[in-house]
């Protein structure tokens, strides 16, 4: 199953969601792919899979426009242990920006789906999208089975999430992926005791009926520490790190159940 992790606003914690869900799925015994569809390449770096200058990346796989073209671009997660055994990364460099200029080419929006064809059978694939609804995100949506929206509980974040929901609803047919749907909305970077967050969280169920997932991901320094250290949360061996890893494990279990219903 492929899940495009999206938001139409930057700074929502989207890449942190992808990286930590991948870790939680691997800890649960799942085989996971992370496709980095963001030219910033932050998911690649945080997973210890930043590509060398001569290494093929997702950009070259898309440009090739051939079935299975991504096969040789996957690399192991650099964390070691079960993570390297179970997580593969389709990495990105900033050159991925060049693919945006192909948006007007007939059929270009299908190129990532073609590149990944046959490469991730039986695996859970998380696609880390840029904070936009442009060509790169559309490439991911065409390739995906479902969309997971990450939302910071503030006005701009909720507006961005609403735009993603509306885009999927209104344009799945246009993307030649009519079964594409929003599987869930996950509140992220939630700050305890902040009035505006409490207020916005109360209204999420109204904005996104039956779509809000729990637990909410709190704003905690350990998430940034793990990202900067290029390491999984559980490796930090602190109580806050274990608590956050347990929260992601609950979300990962939700993804596993979703995968079983689609199979």
UniProtKB/TrEMBL annotation:
Taxonomy-wise, where does this protein's organism fall, top ranks first? Bacteria, Bacillati, Actinomycetota, Actinomycetes, Kitasatosporales
Protein name per UniProt: ParA family protein
Q: Where is the signal peptide?
A: none
AAA domain residues are 3-177
Pfam families reported in the protein's UniProt record: AAA_31 (PF13614)
The organism named in the record is Kitasatospora nipponensis
Q: Which domain of life is it from?
A: Bacteria
């Amino acid at each position: 199953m492929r899940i495009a992790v999206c938001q139409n606003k930057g700074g929502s914690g989207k890449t942190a969601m992808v990286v930590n869900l991948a870790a939680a799925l691997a800890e649960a015994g799942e085989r996971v792919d992370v496709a980095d569809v963001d030219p910033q390449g932050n998911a690649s770096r945080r997973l210890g899979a930043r590509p060398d200058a001569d290494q093929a990346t997702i950009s070259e796989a898309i440009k090739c426009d051939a079935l299975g073209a991504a096969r040789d671009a996957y690399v192991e997660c650099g964390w070691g242990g079960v993570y390297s055994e179970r997580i593969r990364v389709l990495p990105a460099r900033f050159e991925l920006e060049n693919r945006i200029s192909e948006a007007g080419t007939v059929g270009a929006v299908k190129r990532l789906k073609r590149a990944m064809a046959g490469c991730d059978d039986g695996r859970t694939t998380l696609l880390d999208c840029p904070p936009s609804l442009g060509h790169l995100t559309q490439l991911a949506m065409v390739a995906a089975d479902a969309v997971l929206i990450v939302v910071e509980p503030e006005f701009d974040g909720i507006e961005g999430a609403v735009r993603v929901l509306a885009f999927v609803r209104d344009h799945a047919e246009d993307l030649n992926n009519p079964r594409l749907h929003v599987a869930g909305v996950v509140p992220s970077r939630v700050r305890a005791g902040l009035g505006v967050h409490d207020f916005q969280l109360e209204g999420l169920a109204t904005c996104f009926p039956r779509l809000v997932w729990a637990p909410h991901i709190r704003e905690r320094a350990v998430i940034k520490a793990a990202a900067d250290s290029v390491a999984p949360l559980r490796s930090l061996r602190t109580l806050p790190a274990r608590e956050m890893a347990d929260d992601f494990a609950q979300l990962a279990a939700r993804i596993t159940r979703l995968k079983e219903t689609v199979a």
